[in-house]
Amino acid sequence: MNKKAICILSGGMDSTLASYMAKKDGYEIIAVHFNYGQRTENRELKAFRDICDDLKILEKYEIDIPFFTQIGASALTDKNIDIPTNGIEAGVPITYVPFRNGIFLSITAAIAEKEGATAMYIGVVQEDSSGYPDCTDDFINKMKKAINQGTKEDTHIDIVTPLVHLSKAQIVEEAIRLNVPLEHTWSCYKEEEFACGVCDSCRLRLNGFKVANQIDPIPYKGL
């Protein structure tokens, strides 16, 4: 019987690499994607589907979470709040979506228990992220403990974070080493046709490619 892993796959570079690493680790992958009212929801969904095709994933879940737009409080889900384009902010940026990864992990845990999966892969990055509190080792470890406490006794789920201590440049290098189709990934917070190149996510991604001495294959405005 194949061992199963649930991969939280946004369609971004980090979650895509994490999914390829799960495959390399010998797991049968079940992919989960969340439509939560983010500005680039349609483009991220396309990326997710393209990557599932690349990985030949047969079973996938596309989960709608409409309440994030109801509560607002994040530039990703509230179009009345501008996406910052002046460089990385100090502290927790306005693009932070309240407890997003906690909610994603909770829903994914329910799917993992139903599917009999023993691992959940999530592409959180602590050291080179935008300063989100739900991307840290400590948070993930506490979520893992809570999930295993709150599921059936014979359910044992490991939360695997293979990128958590990598820089963006290291992520680019590892993705290229594993032949990850980075041209199918999408990271921009603002735009769906051409990446803006100036939001936090684009800046981190472009800098990662620059430090790794590689060229980003996705289209950018003005580039």
Automatic annotation (TrEMBL):
It catalyses: 7-carboxy-7-carbaguanine + NH4(+) + 2 ATP = 7-cyano-7-carbaguanine + 2 AMP + 2 diphosphate + 2 H(+). One of its GO terms (molecular function) is zinc ion binding. GO terms for biological process: tRNA queuosine(34) biosynthetic process. Pathway: Purine metabolism; 7-cyano-7-deazaguanine biosynthesis. Binds 1 zinc ion per subunit. InterPro entries: QueC, Rossmann-like_a/b/a_fold. The keyword Metal-binding applies. Gene3D superfamilies: HUPs. Zn(2+) binds at C188, C196, C199, C202. CDD domains: QueC-like (cd01995). Its EC number is 6.3.4.20. ATP binds at L9, S10, G11, G12, M13, D14, S15, T16, L17, A18, S19. Its cofactor is Zn(2+). Keywords: ATP-binding, Ligase, Metal-binding, Nucleotide-binding, Queuosine biosynthesis, Zinc. It comes from the Bacteria. Catalyzes the ATP-dependent conversion of 7-carboxy-7-deazaguanine (CDG) to 7-cyano-7-deazaguanine (preQ(0)). PANTHER family: 7-CYANO-7-DEAZAGUANINE SYNTHASE. Belongs to the QueC family. This is 7-cyano-7-deazaguanine synthase. It comes from Arcobacter aquimarinus. The lineage of its organism: Bacteria, Pseudomonadati, Campylobacterota, Epsilonproteobacteria, Campylobacterales. The gene is queC.
